[in-house]
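Example 248.
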Amino acid sequence: MAQRRFFVGGNWKMNGNKESLGGIISTLNTASLHDQTEVVCGAPSIYLDFARSSLDPRIGVAAQNCYRVAKGAFTGEISPAMIKDCGVDWVILGHSERRHVFGESDELIGQKVAHALESDLGVIACIGEKLEEREAGTTEEVVYAQTQVIAENVKDWGKVVLAYEPVWAIGTGKTATPEQAQEVHEKLRAWIRANVSDDVANSVRIIYGGSVTGANCRELASQDDVDGFLVGGASLKPEFVDIINARK
Ligand code: PGA
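Predicted structure in complex with 2-phosphoglycolic acid:
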């Protein structure tokens, strides 16, 4: 099996304040974290600077979104250049809440991916099917189409982590089984092999997201094609440390 460094992202979403996030930060700063695991915390944009200046430098920080250009009259948006200026190296793009609550299209997500990478940010690119799509048997079709648009906008896959997050598993407590996660991850890797390259298929981290907890992370992490996690709710709790250390 190719050596892929285990990657665990926390997605704090629109939660917390300086006091509670400061508590999570100090838990992480003092915890014993597996030194081969890459850890990145997705902070609300107003707390990016705070997160970056408080977290130990061995832990990365991600913005949860950004716009597709460097600057201009786009009230309320932030650019990759601003994210970099805060010392932050990652951005989460295409999260299902951006797609389905805020109506972001595949096209816009693709443009954001391209611009974030050109601006030297690492990108956690999210894809995943809705419950009705899974039930209709279109999971593969949906995730391949989403991955295609991302792939068209990536030149350097070294800075991309692909997050498979079935929408029905996000925030629902209904985690994909290890077999369900492995099945989709394996197919995504095969799609990348066929449509991008062998090298990228072997090296790209494909992480799973959707109700990952301290209790279910080890079995999920034991699957060959699960290279880490994107964690929402549990990233706000001390059990995030157990999830970071899920890889044996
Ligand atoms: P969850 O969220 O772990 O709370 O299901 C995952 C995500 O949205 O990235």
